[in-house]
Automatic annotation (TrEMBL):
InterPro entries xref list: FAD-dep_OxRdtase_2_FAD-bd, FAD/NAD-bd_sf, Fum_R/Succ_DH_flav-like_C_sf, Fum_Rdtase/Succ_DH_flav-like_C, SdhA/FrdA/AprA, Succ_DH/Fum_Rdt_flav_su, Succ_DH/fumarate_Rdtase_cat_sf
Residues forming the catalytic site: R338
EC assignment: 1.3.5.1
Domain FAD-dependent oxidoreductase 2 FAD-binding as annotated: residue spans: 36-472
Descriptive protein name: succinate dehydrogenase
Taxonomic classification: Bacteria, Pseudomonadati, Bacteroidota, Flavobacteriia, Flavobacteriales
Alphabetized GO MF terms: electron transfer activity; flavin adenine dinucleotide binding; succinate dehydrogenase (quinone) activity
Organism: Moheibacter sediminis
Gene3D superfamilies given in the database record: FAD/NAD(P)-binding domain (3.50.50.60), Fumarate reductase/succinate dehydrogenase flavoprotein-like, C-terminal domain (1.20.58.100), Succinate dehydrogenase/fumarate reductase flavoprotein, catalytic domain (3.90.700.10)
Requisite cofactors: FAD
Amino acid sequence: MSKLDSKIPAGDISEKWNKYKEHLRLVAPNNRGKIDIIIVGTGLAGGSAAATLAEMGYNVKAFCYQDSPRRAHSIAAQGGVNAAKNYQNDGDSIHRLFYDTIKGGDYRAREANVHRLAEVSGNIIDQCVAQGVPFAREYGGLLDNRSFGGTQVQRTFYAAGQTGQQLLLGAYSAMNRQIGKGRIQMYNRHEMLDLVLVNGKARGIIARNLVTGEIERHSAHAVIIASGGYGNVFFLSTNAMGSNVTAAWKIHKRGAYFANPCYTQIHPTCIPVHGTQQSKLTLMSESLRNDGRIWVPKKLEDAAAIREGRMKPTDIKEEDRDYYLERRYPAFGNLVPRDVASRAAKERCDAGYGIENNDTQEGVYLDFSAAIIRYGKEKALVSGEHNPSEQRIIQLGEEVVKAKYGNLFQMYEKITADNPYKTPMKIYPAVHYTMGGVWVDYNLMSSIPGCFVLGEANFSDHGANRLGASALMQGLADGYFVIPYTIADYLADDIRTGRIPTDSAEFEQAENGVKDKLNFFLNNKGTKSVDYFHKKLGLVMWNKVGMARNEQGLKEAIAEIDEIKKDFWQNVKVPGTQDSINPELEKAVRVADFLELGQLMAMDALERKESCGGHFREEYQDEEGETLRDDENFKHVAAWEYVGDDIKQEVRHEEPLNYEFIKIAARNYKS
């Protein structure tokens, strides 16, 4: 019998959450001031939770390693946030969003969690509009929507190409109101380095002040982890350089199970790698696939000529272009889900049709020329210009595209020095989001009582592949509309507990453990930088645990990471001291965690003998190269239990996925 109790309530899927909420215990307003809650991470999930819980009257301590919550990586999200409001009258509904999300995740997500997400999605938009988030609007003043991959409706609300930034500013303004009232104590430039358990419950954290180096003890009646994903285990990813797994990994080592670590999202529209000294990758929003057409040359000789600089993409005639997504997936075309689009790009480049002049020839085109002409003709007619010149049509079309995507085009040109209005963008898949994370039950509580996990840090809503514009949806849903109910049910037992003291043996032991680890790094007589090891790990992860995996490569990755770990602990050099700003010391702690996580990811991928969503095992694909699931043996969540320093000894538990309200089928985006 599984050790994992998901606590999914009984009943019809459409009534499950509302009926469940009605029977959860509450904390009365006059008692909330007696309860302390720690929140680690202040992006959309953590920021919305902090603002909401403080507004309710709880005492909140919020921690972020950035200099301000406004710098959380949520700010980097460009394209939009999903909600089932059917503003476009094209057949959307809560059920369709629920279905699209389950199908997009290749039937590897919990039904109950996903339906709840779809149910509260509309509330997110209302909340954010009330906060003043400047969503795009149509001519008549209604909120506008656009399409994203994996759907046939327009349900994505957006604010130009900076949706994450605007949503985060909304949550941050709500936080600031509570900071001003004294209900939120904000700890900027602090990093959580351990979780403290007292009598088996999460009762606090050990944090390092990243400015002074001071090690601090902080207590609470419950701890919320909302620290984002772990894509930087690959070194090169679209994540901010500081994004890490440390908070999630520390609670894993304290007893929180880590679920589906191998589920990594490869985003299809990133600027290709351009050199060995590159430190991160830049995402181009999926919203660009609304109007951009993806292609490579049909002829190998044309692809070679482009790579060698003898031809330009504009030299390739229309009939000599392979719009391979439109060819392979006519029903969805360029808006297939991210995992499908990414593998299709890899297949074309592996076959020799890549257009980027780099070592691996990895690159395809994202072309807006057809959209510019279409929009130009439309705008000319609306403006009363019935015989515009071709130049005039292009001018008008570029104005429309600029209004929709201007900041994204500007960003691309600043990075590449190419004008995307005149020449197609170059793109290639890259590591982006992680669907795996800390295992949580329906209440968003981990296997540690009192330790809750929100947003990308948990595993709960996206299965094996996240649909575009669903990350912002989950983060805000968890923080604004789920955790206030579920954490109250847990905290109802603590209204008479009183403040949690920090002078206990448990806090002492945790603090000493943190200090010992930091002292080791500073006193180790190594010769190699932290980045040296991070890059080595990243190469192994991308080449053998990346977009395509196989048994031999995964076994090699596990062994190779073992060797990198040994080398790291023997030869890493961390300059500086602990009692001051020391970015290398910060990185050393994070890379130590990435090395262990990377090994677990390879183990998880090795054990999952099927292909599903972003987890593509080369041995398990159909005759057309699509994912081949094994629903008989792998229709479950794999949750790993930490049992000691040797990660290879972790114990794998299974939570069965029971689909009562959706019929499982092979994913089909062709018709």
